[in-house]
């Protein structure tokens, strides 16, 4: 039992730091500092992910046979800590951290060869077709129909909350292939080319106020969309099993290092913003008390993750504990984004819609507030998503309670 | 980086757990803490002789088992699960910890006695006007005839009535110093009282108490870093004890909620209670992990050590309050009685929260350590 890194691990940490220093360049940094949702624009996102891929670090969780870096759990933790601490962009998860795992576990050999290399290298972008207007937390009630017609499925219906659908080349979808069966067993897992005729996208601008084309979420409409049967994952009717497998990866992220980065942002704000009675906010007792309360919660999440992820083998699903991390991690993301808004005080008010304008050479908006303040309030609004997506936090509490009750050998 | 317990550490835990299961059931403990003595010297002797437990965190050169802070955490968590009142914290973690840090002849002479169970130590560091600030000491030790004369008052000395010796902080000309004082020494007036968790404590008055020069721990005037370090060790040990108590409270709540029926259904079937139990679980898991991290950081540089210890204490106090209050609430009326062990864990956690800095104290210290002046 010890917390120390081995000399090899220290060398690895230095290698990661050195790489970040040259790869995370001024353009990417500028985009990231002005991001209202944690993502860059598509060009920035692809640029960052291709740099990672070129280094062989795009997919830390992948098995080595598919191009993963063959890291120990501690190396993965170091990598995530270092990239988060430096404020690096998050990798868009839909391809690398989601559908790829399903393809590896349940896809055919042809599907693995067709899709995995392009996912790894961000040659193709993905989006996720799960939720529907009538099916949110109760995902198994989804209605989008897929009717077999020769070598194709014909899709009709609608998907919603589709992150970056406007950038995506492919979508992975849950569709209903059998209406007679029990809800869960009539579902099939399909991969569809976004250029297939019949798919249309409606932008759903979220509260962070994106410009058109940069929106995070969308609604998709499918009208007689023909998807080849060869793009089905596994067997017809087993989609729910595959989706549940994937959900564990969706929730299986560590939040600690991101939360530490948000704390650093708040400290930066507090060192620049004035306090009410003169001096700087960072010396204000109320601010300090609240900071300490939140920072201690971050320490607690980080410790629990450190303990857990340092013993989890590469690419394995992590069960009920991931519900706990999703729950406490997102609650803190929200609490910290709220605290940042309050730290800004009156500077929380002005709104910069096109926050990437300068770096992309578009007409610069009026900026009545310092750069560090521009994306703060939008991020607060954007982060409301975190307790809703990937299974609402109420659902996570249900899952955790089931775990707590069953671990004690009793059933509620 | 490694969070796994060694074979020896698991054995230590299992041995202690199995001893306590046989000798420390709740009803016997209840009778013992209600009796005038308030503790069982026989248990203490068993821990020393039968289990060789008191040597767990000490180097082999003193007759110890070669462990350290992690061993203390293992022991304290098990003691927390059984609501043990015998003074492992005062004697081994704090008393032994101070001796180990001070080193020298005093450690060589006294640590073997600690390990053998021959002495019971109690830390007399707190003073009424100082709240939790262990550096704020009015008690004085005046050099005289090659020794010291001790004058002053100490409060909240846990395990005071059972102690054979006190570890007393006092101001000498050079700064803060630390003395090992016979409990029976002339000039000590002890007022004993029960504490809310079934324990015992004392307030002490020292009037012209003579202490030989060879009872000084470490350098004269150099005790503050020593005391601060061992206070952080005590904080981590208390956190581990609270984690043990929380585990019991959650386990009992889960069992009760599964058996107790209202409106024709087990309490555990109601979502609002399920969510409460889920939150108890997350509070506990995070507390356990942060306690381990802080325990493993006890050997780091002082600021890093203190930051981690304060984070752990602030988290654990808050979590234990939440788990305790929730456990009582879910038990309904039975939760507020003395009949169930539950309420006694809740009391113990409340006592822990008030020792070695409450959450407010540690949040302030955390802020000061992490928010350097702009």
Characterization of the model:
The complex is a heterodimer of chains A (412) and B (374). With 412 residues, chain A is α+β, with helices and mostly antiparallel strands. Chain A folds into 3 domains: 7-91, no CATH class; 124-239, Butyryl-CoA Dehydrogenase, subunit A, domain 2; 252-407, Butyryl-CoA Dehydrogenase, subunit A, domain 3 (Up-down Bundle). Chain A contains 12 helices and 8 strands. In chain A, the strands form 2 sheets. Chain A has a 4-stranded mixed β-sheet. Chain A has a 4-stranded antiparallel β-sheet with strand order 2-3-7-6, with no helix packed on it. In chain A, a hairpin with a 2-residue loop joins β2 and β3 (152-160). In chain A, α1 (7-23) runs parallel beside α4 (73-85), α5 packs antiparallel against α6 (109-120) and α10 (320-344) packs antiparallel against α11 (376-382). The radius of gyration of chain A is 22 Å and the shape is globular. The two termini of chain A are 36 Å apart. The mean pLDDT of chain A is 93. With 374 residues, chain B is of the alpha+beta class. Chain B has 3 domains: 7-119, Acyl-CoA dehydrogenase/oxidase, N-terminal domain (Butyryl-Coa Dehydrogenase, subunit A, domain 1), CATH 1.10.540; 123-222, Butyryl-CoA Dehydrogenase, subunit A, domain 2; 224-370, Butyryl-CoA Dehydrogenase, subunit A, domain 3, CATH 1.20.140.10. Chain B is built from 11 helices and 9 strands. In chain B, the strands form 3 sheets. Chain B has a 4-stranded antiparallel β-sheet with strand order 2-3-7-6, with no helix packed on it. A 3-stranded mixed β-sheet of chain B has the order 1-4-5, with helices on one face. A two-stranded antiparallel ribbon of chain B has the order 8-9. In chain B, β8 and β9 (265-266) form a beta hairpin. The two termini of chain B are 33 Å apart. The mean pLDDT of chain B is 97.
